[in-house]
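Subject: Interface between my chains keeps coming out wrong

I've been trying for a while to get a sensible model of this assembly. When I model each chain on its own everything looks fine, but I need the whole thing in one frame so I can look at the contacts. Pasting all components below, labels as-is. Any help appreciated, I'm running out of ideas.
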Amino acid sequence: MKEIQVKKAFEETFGGTYRFFAAPGRINLIGEHTDYNEGFVLPAAIDKRIYLAIAPLKGSIIKIKSLDFDQSVEINIHEPAGEMPHWAKYPYGVVKEIQAAGYSIGGFQAVFGGDIPKGAGLSSSAALESVFAKALNVLYKLEINRMDLAKIGQRAEHNYAGVKCGIMDQFASLHGKAGHVMKLDCRSLEFEYFPLQLEGHELLLADTRVKHNLASSEYNRRRADCEEGVLLLQSKMHGVKSLRDVRSKDVYPYRDFLGEQIFLCCEYVTEENERVLYTTKALEEGNLKKVGELLYQSHEGLRAKYFVSCAELDLLVDVARKTEGVLGARMMGGGFGGCTINLIKSDAVEAFKQKSAKAFSESFGKEPVFYQVNLSEGAREF
Ligand code: GLA
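Reply #2:
Try treating it as a single job with all components included. I did that and got this:
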């Protein structure tokens, strides 16, 4: 549906021919807040996307219309930019970062829109960066490889949206493969595809529909805490470049030295890294029960050590624990709202939805929204 609307809006707004691209949102099975610690993550691209119709223009003017916000911007990319709506910072950031990497591009006119719920932790912003990065790469024959496109998107997020994110979301949006999760080593950037064979189970997302507005500042603070932890541990251990280099059991002896806040943060990240490795092993063995247990442990760490959960997410995970047929659940993404991801038996889905909707509305006066997602291809031209 959205695809057709985006094409139609391009024809009505600009007319003429265009090329058509899409980039997906992502889920993350496990490995939260590990990417910026050079650790491991296990994301997958999903079948919710941002669609982009785009045509090159002579000169240096870019014209972008957001269908969903019903707003347009027109910017000269060779002049200092003035105020712009928040959504425009992502494509504009991508353009500026492509230029900063030494490539030359011209103007364009574009319309985009999508069906990735915003603020749900499904990385609609990374999808927006990725779809523009992919399209400009093709349009201007830049021949930038996919990983470098992901880095351009990440830098756009750092320098234009102000979030010091890791590489996971942009990586996933550009590299997704149908039916597969991807184990990414965020240090070497090597990755492997793992088929996700769920036989009789599914991944169900439960969206709290809350986005606490502290999210970006708290995210940046966690990142700073990890960096401080690394500095402190370096004075005690050899060969530590990031928390990736530390085993969880080696953190505990430094509890007092690190202080409670930094200690818990380092303990969480080192444990979560290990959980990603246990999860890929469990997937290889077809042991979904074990995968589920690891998801619950991940949530517990995010809640009680990393402090990025919230009451709404905790309630959904509690209900999951008490529902027969749910193997595992945890909050997903940066935190402070968004979705939980649930590994659940297909025949338990309806019961879980009803139970959690009831408990959620009793506590918060509204209902969560559920999404069943399929793992899908990364950014591409149609
Ligand atoms: C956000 C960031 C990612 C990652 C997750 C937490 O989605 O964009 O880089 O850090 O939070 O795992």
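Reply #3:
Confirming on my end. The domain at 2-196 is CATH 3.30.230.10 (Ribosomal Protein S5; domain 2).
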